[in-house]
């Protein structure tokens, strides 16, 4: 890794590093990498992609075919990195970061989703970053509320970039919708409901998953179940972060049983990203997952299952956060101002029927929230690349 960056410097190339925790996070920079690959200036840049060792082969497959000069390594070497110009981290809570050796170098946090749950900056170390690439007005406001001294003590600069992952999110035509639903084994003539819960021990999947699957199996609609990506990962038995949380390993029998039901699909792995599913969805059901912000971009009606224990027990226990005090903020509750919240399972069926019959319910609220989510909508990857060239002083 060090040798490759040395050779790049000897060739008078700039060195840009992207640090990911999993191959799945490549989704957040895929459009950016394509923009770099299409730009002739990138011939003067050497890219390094760092990821956890168990995901190196998966990330190599995602990078295959991109016209970039790059190397692939483990993010465990981050602190020992010496030769680089710009370092991009997708996770704001990095335990370690490369050291600054001179002022020209810049460490940038690009995040991996809109703020939600109130825990974005728990464990955050201001000394690890020099720049934030901000998605939109809501994220900017949240940053200033959570880090009131950001412009004083921290000297972190905020760049209005947008969310590159969302650049290609467009509503599909009916004909394409039918093809995609058939490919998933579902009926194109039926409305489609997506249940996409969070992953914690007090998520709706953990608290009432069996009851929810039974109810979904009885609906006269297509139903897709796609939990948070953390549901699909393998964690150490000593990892207390996932203690009590459902996982693909412990749910394999439930998944198999649900997938035997006509027009029901429980996604069994991470191979189908949310941006592929959302365009064919008529209603989104979640609890406090940030997928609701992506659904708002499609103007999809939202239903939130309130999990009181998540806010009153989990957030205080895991992050020392008063969840009930923050519950009224869209940047914490997943954008509930733009949807309908149900507090009892008995309310959910009626809420689904109502959203399908009248999808324009809360349309004005969804529009207001949508306006707060993104800068440079549809053009964030291009803005990201231009900002990077500026940070490295041109190439």
Low-confidence stretches: none
| Span between termini | 22 Å
Helix share, percent:
25-40%
Q: H/E element string?
A: HEHEHEEEEHEHEHEHEHEHEHHHEHHH
Structural class: alpha/beta
Task: Give the overall shape.
Answer: globular
Number of strands: 13
Molecular structure report:
The structure is a single chain. The chain has 395 residues and is of the alpha/beta class. The strands form 2 sheets. Strands 3-2-1-4-5-6-7 form a 7-stranded parallel sheet, with helices on both faces. A 6-stranded parallel sheet has the order 10-9-8-11-12-13, with helices on both faces. The mean pLDDT is 88.
Features:
single chain; six-stranded parallel sheet; 33% helix; 395 residues; globular; seven-stranded parallel sheet; alpha/beta; 13 strands
Give a brief rundown of this model:
This protein is α/β, with parallel strands linked by helices and 395 residues long. It has helices at residues 2-10, 30-38, 56-63, 137-146, 174-183, 204-217, 252-258, 274-277, 291-297, 308-319, 323-326, 330-333, 348-357, 363-373, 380-391; strands spanning 14-19, 45-51, 70-74, 86-89, 106-109, 131-134, 157-160, 192-195, 222-225, 264-266, 283-286, 302-305, 340-342. It contains 15 helices and 13 strands.
């Amino acid at each position: 890794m060090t040798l490759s960056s040395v050779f790049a410097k000897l060739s008078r190339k700039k060195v840009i590093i992207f640090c990911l925790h999993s191959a799945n996070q490549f989704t957040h920079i895929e459009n950016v990498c394509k923009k770099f690959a299409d730009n002739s200036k990138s011939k003067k840049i050497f890219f390094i992609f760092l990821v956890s060792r168990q995901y190196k082969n998966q990330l190599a497959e995602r990078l295959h075919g991109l016209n970039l000069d790059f190397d692939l390594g483990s993010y465990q070497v981050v602190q020992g990195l010496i030769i680089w110009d710009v370092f991009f981290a997708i996770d704001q809570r990095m335990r370690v970061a490369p050291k600054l050796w001179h002022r020209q170098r810049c460490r940038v946090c690009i995040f991996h989703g809109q703020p939600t749950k109130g825990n974005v900056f728990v464990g955050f170390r201001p000394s690890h970053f020099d720049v934030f690439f901000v998605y939109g007005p809501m994220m900017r406001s949240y940053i200033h509320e959570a880090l009131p001294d950001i412009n004083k003590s921290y000297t972190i600069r905020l760049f209005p970039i947008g969310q590159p992952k969302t650049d290609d999110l467009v509503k599909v035509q009916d004909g394409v919708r039918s093809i995609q639903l058939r490919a998933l084994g579902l009926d194109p003539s039926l409305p489609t409901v997506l249940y996409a819960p969070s992953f914690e021990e007090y998520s709706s999947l953990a608290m009432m998953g069996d009851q929810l699957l039974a109810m979904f199996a009885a609906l006269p609609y297509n139903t897709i179940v796609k939990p948070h990506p953390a549901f699909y990962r393998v964690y150490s038995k000593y990892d207390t972060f996932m203690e009590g949380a459902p996982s693909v390993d412990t749910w394999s029998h439930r998944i198999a049983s649900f997938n035997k039901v006509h027009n029901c699909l429980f996604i069994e792995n991470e191979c189908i990203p949310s941006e592929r599913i959302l365009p064919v969805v008529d209603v989104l059901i979640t609890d406090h997952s940030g997928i609701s912000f992506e659904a708002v971009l499609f103007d999809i009606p939202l239903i939130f299952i309130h999990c009181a224990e998540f806010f009153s027990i989990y957030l205080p226990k895991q992050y020392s956060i008063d969840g009930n005090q923050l519950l009224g903020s869209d940047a914490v509750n997943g954008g509930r101002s733009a949807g309908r919240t149900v507090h009892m399972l008995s309310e959910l069926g009626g809420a689904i029927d109502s959203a399908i019959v009248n999808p324009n319910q809360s349309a004005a609220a969804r529009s207001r929230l949508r306006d707060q989510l993104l800068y440079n909508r549809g053009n964030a990857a291009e803005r990201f690349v231009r900002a990077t060239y500026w940070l490295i002083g041109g190439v």
